[in-house]
Amino acid sequence: MSDFKNGDIVTALYKTGKYIGEVTDSRPGVYVVKVMAVLKHPRQGDLHNPKEVDVPLFHERKALAFRERANIPEKMVKPYEGDIPDYNESLSSTFNELKERLEAEDSPFSAKSLETLSSIKREYELMYSIQL
């Protein structure tokens, strides 16, 4: 296991999202990371069939919440140095980046992803009182 200890600030990849967080615990092969900011909003859809629309369940993926703790495999945790952005600002920015990227594509996958993002947007605006 790497040498991260409680209190270390790290980047963590979780499913298709990337976060800045604080290590709060560790177990063999896993770190528990408390989310502080979003670096990359999770992609929508089926992880096992990327860019496919005709799947049994097209997943709606929200970013991990502010201060939510997640078990992150050790190989997905890296050191982070620098300023930690405000959670709401980082969520808004990464959400809009994903949305703009999908709007630039003309595919059934991007259309379905934009549909799921529309529903996520309403939840974010209620949960975090932010305008997306």
Automatic annotation (TrEMBL):
Keywords: Kinase, Transferase. SMART domains: KapB. GO terms for molecular function: kinase activity. Gene3D superfamilies: Kinase associated protein B domain. The lineage of its organism: Bacteria, Bacillati, Bacillota, Bacilli, Bacillales. This is Kinase. Pfam families: KapB. SUPFAM superfamilies: Kinase-associated protein B-like (SSF141251). Coiled coil: none annotated.
